[in-house]
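Re: the request from the purification team.
They wanted to know what the chain is likely to look like in 3D before they choose a buffer screen. I agreed to run a prediction and write the result into the notebook, where they can find it.
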Amino acid sequence: MNRDPSSCPSRVSLPQGDGEYCQLIQDLVNDVAADPIRIDHQACQACCGSFLPTSEDWNPVVASKVFEIADRVLQQADPSREAWQKATQLVDHAINQLPIVLAHEDDLVDDRQQQVHESCINREQFEERLPRPEVTDPVHSPVNWSVAITTAPRRQPTLHETVGSLEACGWTSFGIVVDGDEGWSDSGNWTVLDKRTQSIGAWPTWVETLRRLYQCGADVLMIVQDDALFPRIDCLRDAIESCLWPNDRSIVSLYTSTDDMLDDNRWQAHPRRWQLGALAMIFPRSLAADLLTMVDRGELEIVRGNAGIDTRIGVWAERQGIEVWHPSPSLVQHIGQVSAVWRSSRAVGLRRASRWIADE
């Protein structure tokens, strides 16, 4: 449900009808600005259009307002040392909370508030919206899938949205892999394939998930990340099966980032090294084995740390002559407002899909 200023718990009216202030912002800046600071209705509306902020996770409106207030203190002729230090901390934190976007991009988008209704269309109707690519190496029917969702503790959980939307698209059998169970709530009727107390990181978790799926013996393996939103089109699984495989050296990404999006509706083999998004990746069994072999040889330790899933997949595909096919518009949307890896990274700008099939 969309948020509205009239029901915002942080919105407080000043005495004698003298405007409103935001209790959340006031609490954040109280050490440098004790008097209530008025917030206009336009700012409230913009805040409600973004994700729900907390004292730890500021949306762009809250971050901008805190920056403005703290910077005003720093511009004073002679602020106290304590006020200067606290204002500096607020400015730094506000900058870290603001996503990096280009001038034409919207940093207030919150796809979690979008109401995505289930769409009951057949495959032919779906292919009118997104024509099927030429398939030269068709998968055998019925397709034997092995599907897993990887998840890690988030301050703003998205797993329930991912699971519900995946099921609505026809994938009702899948497992959950939990990387670090601190604060994780097993509140769904899900099959948990693995749950680690101590996190091992995004890339090691993804690799071990692929290995587990491969060991299941399925023909088609799909790993979904817990901030992927599917379009609730009930024939999507059937439509995707008809697209497998464009050739015998191809994998499929159901996600297409803004940077990789085409203007027309079609599938394409990515013309460059794949590097923007591993939200929903599909592998034939043989190529999953090829990727795991390269991992075991240590040939994909090319990124510092335990992130860079998409970059490593892209390097593997490029080295092995494997095509990454992806759709325009994207078939999944990136809804992670706070990354499980980079704690202040937002799903805006290039990190989300500028075109999503649920909107078209």
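For the purification team: The longest strand covers residues 145-151.
Please add any questions underneath this entry.
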